Amino acid sequence: MRQPDIEIYVKDSDRSTVSLWLATALNMPVCTWLEKGRVSRCQYGDIPAVWFEHAVGKWHSLLLESENTPWATDLECAQAAAAYLQVQVRCATGSWQEADGEEDADRWLQVNADTSLETITWYTANK
Fold it and tell me: In terms of domain of life, where is this protein from (predicted)?
């Protein structure tokens, strides 16, 4: 099932490098980011992109606010990003809702630079 948007967390990379990957993956020119504090926005055709610098510690958030991406799920995008960028990339295990409980909120998928996949516990909020 295709997700309505895509969000991944990228470690040890920067917005410029991620922009080159996105331009290649989306077959578009590199966009110009508009910065406001730690959050930057740009538009790849009909796909709005949001980059949140150090969203969780050393991890940067990339949000693609569209279902019109080459990836149906966060995991597909994370795998593509890790393979291209050669860094660790994390994403949610799937759609999460409050009714799912807090324990599931801390369960994440991590794609390593070698594209191996593991399920991890990642506390992204203060307890």
Answer: Bacteria
